[in-house]
Amino acid sequence: MGSLRMNRGKTLKAALSQTLLTLVAVVMIFPFFWMITTALKPAAEVFSVPPRIVGSELRWHNFIDAWNYLPFSRFIVNGLVVSGIGTAIVLISSSLAAFAFSRLHWRGRDGVFLIYLGTLMIPQEVLVVPMFMIMRELGWINSYAGLIMPWAFTAFGTFLLRQFFMTLPRELEEAATIDGAGIWTVYWRILLPLTRPAMGTLAVFTFIGYWNSFLWPLLIVSDVNMATVPLGLNMFLGQTGNQWNLLMAAATISVIPSALLVIALQKYLVKGIALSGLGGR
Amino acid sequence: MASLNLNGIEKSYGSLKVVHGIDLEIADGEFIVLVGPSGCGKSTLLRMIAGLEAITEGEVRIGGSVVNWEAPKDRGIAMVFQNYALYPHMTVEDNMAFALQLAHRTPADIHERVDRAAAMLGLEAYLKRYPRELSGGQRQRVAMGRALVRDPKVFLFDEPLSNLDAKLRVQMRTEIRELQQRLKTTTVYVTHDQVEAMTMADRIVVMNAGRIEQVGTPLELYDRPANRFVGGFIGSPAMNMLEGAFEKTETGTSFRSAQGAVFAVPPQVAGGVVPGAGAFGIRPEDLTLAPGSGLRAKVVVIEPTGAETMLRCVSDGEALTVVLRERPGVLPGDEVELAVRPGAGVWFDAAGRNCAVLKN
């Protein structure tokens, strides 16, 4: 009797959490769904009252129109170059810094780390003006370097990887030292291969961060040929009236690289989030 | 293969000294076990030999040459860690080959050495597996294989069996000993388990609070502990200690325990005895049940193991353990009288030193 009641309680709890999760999932997915259906509507039906979920016809041609409306392939190439190189630099710089902050011993190490970590508290909006002036001095306005370098050395990535390095047993490093490995060999052949889940997580976050970045490219890029995807999307607004259906078609295209990356690195992402304590456990 | 000499080794962390002047000569091919309670400095000493900890004071010589400033890889040592420290992302084969690759050996040479070590340890079938796919005992063997392939002058073991279950521990103990006897490689083995020390060592080094208490063969330490610490540490179940005082009369020297039992101190020991406080150490197997012998005790727990029976007794507040070969007809709560086998027992003075050793 007692166990029956307990079972019923458990079932109820499961049902409740399932319902809640489903609801949250629907709320999260709905904007994407709306984006795709809007992308397939004729221009006149975007704001029809009452709102229609699906338009009177599925205009696949919107995607081709959006692609040709602006040099969109150029934006995607720019985005891939900036996000790809940026992610690579972040992975290298963060892992090296994390190695120094977790495995090497030097005077003042933890103090420096604390200050470095403190930079996380400064919002991007505060940084953009001085950063812009530095970029102008360096002559990096309207360049890939200007888009990539200011965000390629992050306390976030360093912190994430440092925490991960610190979970690896010290004996591994000592065993490698006895086997004849120097600092670089320990870093490259022992620690890095074991940090793959955290590196995967960082790669996804960084890539998406670069890919979706809007404020910084808006400031530093004035040449259409250097624009990234979010800037391109912005161009659908205002030039010759707002092309909402084309904007949504372009936005749908722009989600694809990030989505592919998440799917490809999914295995590491879940592991990395669980291991590095980023998840709300 | 090489001898290993430690001369006045000290280790300090800031102002805290944890190892106080260790002198030890280890002969070529000897199996030395460092044993002591946790925090006694045995692992620190081992790590200084390995080169993982800087040596504050003193000299480490391997094969006659000072290695204080040599990198670990150049000392000709190989170490097996407590948690094995196998590289999780490498196969068994790669784990064993790693050091050889770093030393730029030829692939053929690496292959041959790894195969030889694998054959020696029965790991041939597991070469392509990852550490996570192995049992505890197999991982332990891989860790040994990794040490073997380097053909070191000295093997260092840091509590290598503590993570294994009791049965496997006994089995691996024999395997390590047997392997060492075959290879005749000088070995330093750290453990806190005195049974491991007794069964494996050529000589045992008992350490306490950063100092060596005694060095000797297992039976030397068991039969003639230099002091109360060694007497109490070596042997399981532990030596019984009767507190009391030495008395000198015209008929000879005797020891009166706190319970009031009087024991005659043999003449060969009496010379080292000073009247006053002291202790009488008796191994559990040196106590017998003997009515009318004077040392009264109450049986608290009876633990039969089949071959032997262990009686946990209390005598005037002091715990006494008795190990009997025969099966006694006593029950918990019974009063018994205990006698010490003639010639057995160790006498300690007020400072805890063995009186027999003092006299010599």
Automatic annotation (TrEMBL), chain A:
Membrane topology of this protein: Multi-pass membrane protein
CDD domains for the chain: TM_PBP2
Keyword Protease in record: no
GO biological process per UniProt: transmembrane transport
Membrane spanning stretches: 20-40, 75-101, 113-135, 141-161, 202-224, 244-265
Domain ABC transmembrane type-1: 76-265
Entry's localization field: Cell membrane
Superkingdom: Bacteria
Keyword Membrane recorded: yes
A Pfam family recorded for this sequence: BPD_transp_1
Keyword entries, A-Z: Cell membrane, Membrane, Transmembrane, Transmembrane helix, Transport
GO cellular component, one term: plasma membrane
Family note: Belongs to the binding-protein-dependent transport system permease family.
Protein name: Binding-protein-dependent transport systems inner membrane component
TrEMBL record, chain B:
Domain of life, source organism: Bacteria
Residues annotated as domain ABC transporter: 4-234
One GO cellular component term noted in the UniProt record for this chain: ATP-binding cassette (ABC) transporter complex, substrate-binding subunit-containing
Transmembrane feature ranges: none
SUPFAM superfamilies: MOP-like, P-loop containing nucleoside triphosphate hydrolases
GO molecular function, one term: ABC-type transporter activity
NCBIfam families: PRK11650.1
Protein name: Sugar ABC transporter ATP-binding protein
